[in-house]
Amino acid sequence: METGYMIVNLLGCVLIITSTLVVLSRKLKQAAYTYAIQSLVIVAMFLTLAVTCGSTDLYLWSGSAFITKVVLVPAIMLYAIKKIGPKADEEIPSKLGPIGCVILVVIELVVCYLAVMNVTLPTAAEAHPALAIALAHFFIGLTCIVSQRNILKQVFGYCLMENGSHVTLALLAPSAPGLVETGIATDAIFAVIIMVIVAYKIYKKNDSLDAGELMNLKG
Questions:
Q1: The whole model's pTM is what?
Q2: What is the mean pLDDT of residues 57-66?
């Protein structure tokens, strides 16, 4: 059992690396592929937890996560990038530089680790590092939304937040019914679709994905 949780914690380390790369990615396609890799790691975490905890529901979680996170979300984002064309990767300076983003991610991770040290639930006690990383994902996603001006990049921030909540739930309640996970995944897919449609309409109206250009109201 200890080996299983050790693998979960190691996979959690990969999650934090991929999240940071998504935030720092200059190209949206690169961010989409990195997100797909992160989602594949989450599937591996679910499968490891399923074996370790003896939870059959987590097998359903892993299958649903593969379809929605590894396949559908990246496909939707890549389609939107292709639909918009070269301007999707137009260089839009972020509000926070790469070094600042990395420092902020480290601070968020440390704070979350300190916060989960007192959590005594059976699974959480064995996977404090992974739980801290899952919780930090919410704030890393928020960092991406706040620091990035590219609207599609901000959508990735939401996706990181959703991944964090997903992993947190799996760690704290590995025996939760598969229907719960299916509901979360379905909500996420529809949210991404709606945000992508809104982003495309904004691009068609302003010929830009720069969120900074939306600050001025036009009468």
A1: 0.87
A2: 86
